[in-house]
Amino acid sequence: MKNHIIPAFRLTMVMLAIVSLYLLFVYGGSKVLPTQGDAEIITHNGQKFYANIGQNFTSEKYFHGRPSAVDYNAAGSAGSNKGPSNAEYLEMVQKRIDTLKMQNPEMTNTPVPVELVTASGSGLDPAISPEGALYQVKRIAKVRSLSKEKIEELIKGNTNPPLLGLFGPSNVNVLKLNIALDGLE
Predict the structure, then answer these.
(1) Where are the transmembrane segments (predicted)?
(2) What pTM was estimated for this model as a whole?
(3) Where are the domains of the chain?
(4) Can you give 42-98 as a three-state secondary structure string?
(5) What pLDDT is recorded for position 1?
(6) Terminal-to-terminal C-alpha distance of the chain
(7) What is the pLDDT of residues 91-127, one digit of tens each?
């Protein structure tokens, strides 16, 4: 028994040290980020919003973000766990495509950006691609009586480049874009 307890104890201590170093590395790394590892809270019209958690925008006058598999509930972050060959999932995505084309009738012949009809792995993604935002420009311009050029310029001004110019695609935070859109009026 002694031959098993001592190696198990040593292995436990080694793993504890490795995991502790990893946690310190992640924590230290988060402190060099712009938000220092904390949530970015935005107050708009007396309400607080988390800019790093997707919001549900359904009004025609706002940009719509990614669908959420968890109804934008940050306490239950999760994907749908349905693969691209699942009939129920394909039917749900097709309904989203049909709804999106109905909301944006001027774009019926334009391919739908994938993030506007599929949920992210967390179900809480706050950003869409610039193409996803541009897909919605005509609808918003019409509803808000603004020029397409003005809205396109707003999208360009709110587009975040890839991290360090290398990692990930360009994206647009939907909450920040919609707050900036309200500022145009």
Answers:
(1) 7-27
(2) 0.78
(3) 1-37, 39-183
(4) EEECCEEEECCCCCCCCCCCCCCCCCCCCCCCHHHCCCCCCCCCCHHHHHHHHHHHH
(5) 73
(6) 76
(7) 999 999 999 999 998 888 889 999 999 888 787 889 9
